[in-house]
Amino acid sequence: MAIGQKLEEARNRKGISIREASESTKIRGDYLSAFESGQFDVSLPEVYLRGFIRLYSRFLDLDQDAMLADLDLELGNS
Description:
The protein has 78 residues and is mainly alpha-helical. 69% of the residues lie in helices and 0% in strands.
């Protein structure tokens, strides 16, 4: 399963909207929407992208290290 799909499914399981997730994590809603759509080319330095994915994964009770490994595969950094 793609990382974006995992994020979206975890958020939906918790019954949280993108707006609520954005307010809780302080990550812009358009970034969260892009991540869930599998779009990681959001004009962010990779260190910020990785930090946002780690934070969002923690917020959604997902394994942060596994999600970052998935991100590396998605970005071709493996």
